[in-house]
Amino acid sequence: MDAGSFLLRTHLLRISPKFLARNPPSPRFVRCSSELQARYRGPKPKKDWIAEWVEKNDDAVRSLPIYVGGGSLLAVLVNRAVSGIAPVADASSSQSRADLLTLGLAVTNILAGLVWLSIRPKAISVVDPQGVQCQWINPNLQESVTSELSWVWESLSTATCCRSLVIVYNGSCVLQMGVAAECSSERGTAVEVNATKLMEGTLYQAAIKSQTQSYLANLSLYPGRSELPFLPANTQAVILQPLEENGIAVLGGDTVRGFTTSDQAWITLVAEKIEASLRRWRE
After folding, report:
1. What's the pLDDT at 240?
2. Which of 16, 110, 131, 220 has the fewest CB atoms found within 10 Å of its own CB?
Protein backbone atom coordinates (compact mmCIF):
# COMPACT_ATOMS: atom_id res chain seq x y z
CA MET A 1 0.00 0.00 0.00
CA ASP A 2 1.51 3.43 -0.96
CA ALA A 3 1.76 6.41 1.38
CA GLY A 4 -0.95 8.41 -0.40
CA SER A 5 -3.67 5.80 -0.03
CA PHE A 6 -2.60 5.15 3.62
CA LEU A 7 -2.93 8.84 4.51
CA LEU A 8 -6.29 9.03 2.70
CA ARG A 9 -7.70 6.06 4.63
CA THR A 10 -6.37 7.48 7.93
CA HIS A 11 -8.06 10.79 7.20
CA LEU A 12 -11.37 9.10 6.42
CA LEU A 13 -11.25 7.09 9.65
CA ARG A 14 -10.78 10.28 11.69
CA ILE A 15 -14.10 11.78 10.47
CA SER A 16 -16.56 11.53 13.32
CA PRO A 17 -20.23 10.54 12.91
CA LYS A 18 -21.27 13.94 14.30
CA PHE A 19 -19.47 15.65 11.43
CA LEU A 20 -21.27 13.47 8.91
CA ALA A 21 -24.61 14.19 10.58
CA ARG A 22 -24.01 17.97 10.42
CA ASN A 23 -22.65 17.82 6.87
CA PRO A 24 -24.51 15.18 4.90
CA PRO A 25 -23.16 14.47 1.42
CA SER A 26 -25.09 16.44 -1.16
CA PRO A 27 -26.46 14.52 -4.17
CA ARG A 28 -24.88 15.21 -7.49
CA PHE A 29 -26.72 15.19 -10.78
CA VAL A 30 -25.13 14.61 -14.14
CA ARG A 31 -26.82 16.24 -17.07
CA CYS A 32 -26.40 15.00 -20.57
CA SER A 33 -26.13 17.94 -22.95
CA SER A 34 -27.62 18.01 -26.41
CA GLU A 35 -24.12 18.12 -27.86
CA LEU A 36 -23.25 14.77 -26.30
CA GLN A 37 -26.53 13.30 -27.54
CA ALA A 38 -25.78 14.59 -31.03
CA ARG A 39 -22.34 12.97 -30.95
CA TYR A 40 -23.75 9.54 -30.14
CA ARG A 41 -22.97 7.18 -33.01
CA GLY A 42 -24.20 3.91 -31.55
CA PRO A 43 -27.10 1.79 -32.80
CA LYS A 44 -30.51 3.40 -32.56
CA PRO A 45 -33.84 1.61 -32.24
CA LYS A 46 -35.63 1.20 -35.53
CA LYS A 47 -39.34 1.52 -36.16
CA ASP A 48 -41.16 -0.56 -38.67
CA TRP A 49 -43.49 2.10 -40.05
CA ILE A 50 -45.23 -0.32 -42.40
CA ALA A 51 -46.05 -2.77 -39.62
CA GLU A 52 -47.35 0.04 -37.39
CA TRP A 53 -49.53 1.42 -40.17
CA VAL A 54 -50.95 -2.02 -40.95
CA GLU A 55 -51.72 -2.60 -37.27
CA LYS A 56 -53.54 0.71 -36.97
CA ASN A 57 -55.52 0.20 -40.20
CA ASP A 58 -56.28 -3.49 -39.93
CA ASP A 59 -59.80 -3.28 -41.39
CA ALA A 60 -58.71 -1.20 -44.36
CA VAL A 61 -55.83 -3.55 -45.16
CA ARG A 62 -58.09 -6.60 -44.99
CA SER A 63 -60.58 -4.92 -47.37
CA LEU A 64 -57.90 -3.76 -49.80
CA PRO A 65 -58.00 -6.91 -52.04
CA ILE A 66 -61.76 -6.43 -52.46
CA TYR A 67 -61.29 -2.86 -53.66
CA VAL A 68 -58.45 -3.84 -55.98
CA GLY A 69 -60.38 -6.79 -57.41
CA GLY A 70 -63.58 -4.78 -57.82
CA GLY A 71 -61.73 -1.93 -59.51
CA SER A 72 -59.95 -4.33 -61.85
CA LEU A 73 -63.21 -6.03 -62.75
CA LEU A 74 -64.89 -2.70 -63.47
CA ALA A 75 -61.91 -1.52 -65.54
CA VAL A 76 -62.03 -4.66 -67.72
CA LEU A 77 -65.77 -4.23 -68.38
CA VAL A 78 -65.41 -0.52 -69.19
CA ASN A 79 -62.44 -1.19 -71.48
CA ARG A 80 -64.34 -3.88 -73.34
CA ALA A 81 -67.41 -1.67 -73.77
CA VAL A 82 -65.44 1.40 -74.93
CA SER A 83 -63.04 -0.43 -77.27
CA GLY A 84 -65.92 -1.73 -79.38
CA ILE A 85 -65.00 -5.39 -78.98
CA ALA A 86 -67.86 -7.85 -79.24
CA PRO A 87 -69.27 -8.78 -75.84
CA VAL A 88 -68.93 -12.47 -76.68
CA ALA A 89 -65.47 -13.85 -75.83
CA ASP A 90 -63.54 -15.01 -78.86
CA ALA A 91 -60.78 -17.52 -78.25
CA SER A 92 -58.92 -16.37 -81.33
CA SER A 93 -58.70 -12.79 -80.05
CA SER A 94 -55.72 -11.89 -77.88
CA GLN A 95 -57.76 -9.15 -76.22
CA SER A 96 -60.40 -11.65 -75.13
CA ARG A 97 -57.79 -13.96 -73.66
CA ALA A 98 -56.22 -11.04 -71.74
CA ASP A 99 -59.64 -9.97 -70.44
CA LEU A 100 -60.43 -13.48 -69.24
CA LEU A 101 -57.11 -13.66 -67.40
CA THR A 102 -57.72 -10.26 -65.82
CA LEU A 103 -61.21 -11.28 -64.74
CA GLY A 104 -59.82 -14.40 -63.08
CA LEU A 105 -57.24 -12.35 -61.17
CA ALA A 106 -59.87 -9.81 -60.13
CA VAL A 107 -62.20 -12.50 -58.80
CA THR A 108 -59.27 -14.07 -56.93
CA ASN A 109 -58.52 -10.75 -55.24
CA ILE A 110 -62.14 -10.34 -54.21
CA LEU A 111 -62.27 -13.84 -52.70
CA ALA A 112 -58.97 -13.25 -50.89
CA GLY A 113 -60.36 -10.08 -49.36
CA LEU A 114 -63.50 -11.88 -48.20
CA VAL A 115 -61.34 -14.56 -46.58
CA TRP A 116 -59.22 -11.94 -44.82
CA LEU A 117 -62.34 -10.28 -43.43
CA SER A 118 -63.88 -13.55 -42.24
CA ILE A 119 -60.75 -14.97 -40.57
CA ARG A 120 -59.46 -12.86 -37.71
CA PRO A 121 -57.08 -13.85 -34.90
CA LYS A 122 -58.86 -14.43 -31.64
CA ALA A 123 -57.80 -12.04 -28.93
CA ILE A 124 -56.26 -13.83 -25.95
CA SER A 125 -57.29 -12.30 -22.65
CA VAL A 126 -56.49 -13.07 -19.04
CA VAL A 127 -59.37 -14.70 -17.17
CA ASP A 128 -60.15 -14.57 -13.47
CA PRO A 129 -60.03 -18.15 -12.11
CA GLN A 130 -63.34 -19.22 -10.61
CA GLY A 131 -62.78 -20.89 -7.27
CA VAL A 132 -61.58 -20.33 -3.73
CA GLN A 133 -58.18 -19.39 -2.38
CA CYS A 134 -56.24 -22.30 -0.93
CA GLN A 135 -52.97 -22.06 1.01
CA TRP A 136 -52.20 -25.58 2.20
CA ILE A 137 -48.84 -27.22 2.78
CA ASN A 138 -48.32 -30.60 4.39
CA PRO A 139 -47.69 -29.85 8.10
CA ASN A 140 -45.31 -32.83 8.36
CA LEU A 141 -42.75 -31.15 6.13
CA GLN A 142 -39.58 -29.70 7.59
CA GLU A 143 -39.48 -25.96 8.08
CA SER A 144 -36.77 -25.53 5.45
CA VAL A 145 -38.80 -27.47 2.88
CA THR A 146 -41.94 -25.51 3.75
CA SER A 147 -40.19 -22.19 3.28
CA GLU A 148 -38.72 -23.35 0.00
CA LEU A 149 -42.11 -24.46 -1.34
CA SER A 150 -43.60 -21.13 -0.27
CA TRP A 151 -40.86 -19.34 -2.16
CA VAL A 152 -41.55 -21.48 -5.24
CA TRP A 153 -45.23 -20.56 -5.19
CA GLU A 154 -44.58 -16.84 -4.70
CA SER A 155 -42.05 -16.84 -7.54
CA LEU A 156 -44.27 -18.73 -9.97
CA SER A 157 -47.36 -16.66 -9.22
CA THR A 158 -45.41 -13.42 -9.62
CA ALA A 159 -43.25 -14.16 -12.66
CA THR A 160 -45.63 -16.33 -14.71
CA CYS A 161 -49.34 -16.75 -15.38
CA CYS A 162 -49.52 -19.56 -12.80
CA ARG A 163 -52.56 -19.19 -10.53
CA SER A 164 -52.79 -22.74 -9.14
CA LEU A 165 -50.06 -25.09 -7.95
CA VAL A 166 -50.39 -28.67 -6.77
CA ILE A 167 -47.48 -30.95 -5.89
CA VAL A 168 -47.95 -34.70 -5.42
CA TYR A 169 -44.98 -36.66 -4.13
CA ASN A 170 -44.69 -40.31 -3.13
CA GLY A 171 -48.41 -40.90 -3.44
CA SER A 172 -49.59 -37.96 -1.33
CA CYS A 173 -50.30 -34.29 -1.86
CA VAL A 174 -47.72 -32.08 -0.19
CA LEU A 175 -48.88 -28.69 -1.49
CA GLN A 176 -52.00 -27.01 -2.85
CA MET A 177 -51.67 -23.26 -3.37
CA GLY A 178 -53.52 -20.56 -5.26
CA VAL A 179 -57.04 -20.75 -6.64
CA ALA A 180 -58.69 -24.17 -6.31
CA ALA A 181 -62.05 -25.51 -7.43
CA GLU A 182 -64.83 -24.96 -4.93
CA CYS A 183 -66.35 -28.01 -3.28
CA SER A 184 -70.02 -28.42 -4.29
CA SER A 185 -71.06 -29.87 -0.92
CA GLU A 186 -69.33 -27.24 1.25
CA ARG A 187 -69.37 -23.65 0.09
CA GLY A 188 -66.08 -21.84 0.44
CA THR A 189 -64.08 -25.07 0.74
CA ALA A 190 -61.48 -26.13 -1.79
CA VAL A 191 -61.67 -29.50 -3.53
CA GLU A 192 -59.06 -31.77 -1.99
CA VAL A 193 -56.51 -33.40 -4.23
CA ASN A 194 -57.07 -37.13 -4.59
CA ALA A 195 -53.48 -38.21 -5.20
CA THR A 196 -54.39 -41.84 -5.87
CA LYS A 197 -56.95 -40.97 -8.52
CA LEU A 198 -54.58 -38.47 -10.11
CA MET A 199 -51.79 -41.03 -10.33
CA GLU A 200 -54.14 -43.49 -12.04
CA GLY A 201 -55.01 -41.01 -14.78
CA THR A 202 -53.54 -40.92 -18.26
CA LEU A 203 -52.03 -37.45 -17.85
CA TYR A 204 -49.96 -38.48 -14.84
CA GLN A 205 -48.92 -41.79 -16.37
CA ALA A 206 -47.85 -40.16 -19.65
CA ALA A 207 -45.81 -37.49 -17.86
CA ILE A 208 -44.05 -39.99 -15.59
CA LYS A 209 -43.35 -42.35 -18.47
CA SER A 210 -41.86 -39.67 -20.72
CA GLN A 211 -40.09 -37.84 -17.86
CA THR A 212 -40.57 -34.65 -19.82
CA GLN A 213 -42.69 -31.60 -19.21
CA SER A 214 -46.21 -31.77 -20.66
CA TYR A 215 -47.71 -28.42 -21.66
CA LEU A 216 -51.45 -28.24 -22.33
CA ALA A 217 -51.50 -24.75 -23.88
CA ASN A 218 -55.31 -24.70 -24.29
CA LEU A 219 -56.83 -26.94 -21.65
CA SER A 220 -60.35 -26.72 -23.09
CA LEU A 221 -59.22 -28.74 -26.13
CA TYR A 222 -58.01 -31.72 -24.08
CA PRO A 223 -60.44 -34.37 -22.82
CA GLY A 224 -58.03 -35.21 -20.00
CA ARG A 225 -59.01 -32.06 -18.14
CA SER A 226 -61.51 -34.17 -16.19
CA GLU A 227 -58.54 -35.76 -14.42
CA LEU A 228 -57.77 -32.40 -12.77
CA PRO A 229 -60.98 -31.64 -10.81
CA PHE A 230 -59.07 -29.68 -8.16
CA LEU A 231 -58.24 -26.90 -10.63
CA PRO A 232 -60.70 -24.06 -11.33
CA ALA A 233 -63.21 -24.85 -14.06
CA ASN A 234 -61.97 -22.01 -16.27
CA THR A 235 -58.27 -22.84 -16.06
CA GLN A 236 -56.81 -21.90 -19.43
CA ALA A 237 -53.46 -23.72 -19.55
CA VAL A 238 -51.74 -26.45 -17.54
CA ILE A 239 -48.17 -27.63 -17.14
CA LEU A 240 -47.50 -31.14 -15.87
CA GLN A 241 -43.95 -31.24 -14.58
CA PRO A 242 -42.71 -34.67 -13.41
CA LEU A 243 -40.52 -34.82 -10.31
CA GLU A 244 -38.44 -37.67 -11.66
CA GLU A 245 -40.43 -40.86 -10.93
CA ASN A 246 -41.61 -39.84 -7.48
CA GLY A 247 -44.30 -37.29 -8.19
CA ILE A 248 -45.59 -34.43 -10.29
CA ALA A 249 -46.20 -30.70 -10.11
CA VAL A 250 -49.39 -29.36 -11.70
CA LEU A 251 -49.45 -25.69 -12.62
CA GLY A 252 -52.65 -23.98 -13.77
CA GLY A 253 -52.54 -20.73 -15.73
CA ASP A 254 -55.06 -17.99 -16.38
CA THR A 255 -54.13 -17.37 -20.04
CA VAL A 256 -54.24 -19.57 -23.13
CA ARG A 257 -50.63 -20.24 -24.18
CA GLY A 258 -49.61 -18.01 -21.29
CA PHE A 259 -46.50 -19.97 -20.30
CA THR A 260 -43.62 -18.86 -22.50
CA THR A 261 -40.66 -20.98 -23.53
CA SER A 262 -38.53 -19.28 -20.88
CA ASP A 263 -41.18 -20.03 -18.26
CA GLN A 264 -41.21 -23.70 -19.19
CA ALA A 265 -37.41 -23.98 -18.99
CA TRP A 266 -37.36 -22.19 -15.64
CA ILE A 267 -40.13 -24.41 -14.25
CA THR A 268 -38.09 -27.47 -15.22
CA LEU A 269 -35.11 -26.20 -13.21
CA VAL A 270 -37.30 -25.29 -10.23
CA ALA A 271 -38.82 -28.78 -10.30
CA GLU A 272 -35.37 -30.33 -9.99
CA LYS A 273 -34.76 -28.28 -6.86
CA ILE A 274 -38.17 -29.25 -5.43
CA GLU A 275 -37.53 -32.93 -6.05
CA ALA A 276 -34.12 -32.78 -4.36
CA SER A 277 -35.57 -31.10 -1.26
CA LEU A 278 -38.48 -33.53 -0.99
CA ARG A 279 -36.16 -36.49 -1.48
CA ARG A 280 -33.96 -35.35 1.40
CA TRP A 281 -37.06 -34.90 3.56
CA ARG A 282 -38.22 -38.45 2.80
CA GLU A 283 -34.82 -39.86 3.60
Report:
1. 95
2. 16
